[in-house]
Amino acid sequence: MGNAAQLFCCLSAPPPSGIMAVLAKGMTTYYEILRISRDAPREAVKAAFRAMAKRYHPDFHPGRSAWAHCRIQEILRAYEVLFDDKKRAVYDRTLSRLKTRSGSAYRESLRRRGDDPAAACQLVFLDLLEGRGAEGLARYEGIRVSRRPFSMKDHMPPGDFLDCGFLVAEEYERQRRPRAAFEHYREIYREDKARNYFRHFRAEILLRMRNLVVQFLGMEGHLHCALDAFAGDLAEGLNRRERAFLYKKIAERLCRAGEERMARITLLAALQLHPRLGGVKKIKTRLREYRRGLPPSPPGA
Question: What is the pTM of this model?
Answer without folding.
Answer: 0.69
